[in-house]
Amino acid sequence: xxxxxxxxxxxxxxxxxxxxxxxxxxxxxxxxxxxxxxxxxxxxxxxxxxxxxxxxxxxxxxxxxxxxxxxxxxxxxxxxxxxxxxxxxxxxxxxxxxxxxxxxxxxxxxxxxxxxxxxxxxxxxxxxxxxxxxxxxxxxxxxxxxxxxxxxxx
Length: 154
Fold this sequence. Notes:
This protein is α/β, with parallel strands linked by helices. It is built from five helices and six strands, in the order βαβαβαββαβα. It has helices at residues 14-27, 44-50, 65-71, 111-116, 135-149; strands at 5-9, 30-34, 58-62, 77-80, 99-102, 121-122. Strands 3-2-1-5-4-6 form a six-stranded parallel beta sheet, with helices on both faces. The model has no long low-confidence stretch (mean pLDDT 89).
């Protein structure tokens, strides 16, 4: 069965990546780490957040997002950001194999990437008074919606 891909571009906070690794292990999603990481992959906080599930994570590392996209030329990439006003994540029509791309915690995805891919940009509405969700929470929200839409939660 084809699964989904979580892509973290330059993640900075080890526990977030560890939590997302655990999410990927629980859902059979592949975790792609892209670019310069804000921590070592051997970081104890990263390992603690992922608990003893690291051996169950399909983990891939890439020097750049372009390198990942070149490896998967037919891949469908969805870009998640608080910087886009339209296209709620629930409106995406997800297919197994899709790549759900999240930016680093302090800056998100680059503006030029979002502008170049407006039709594939999605956001999670936040009617409250905060500007963003924790990265691992956002990844879980979107991944579970993709799994729900594709009938993979049965």
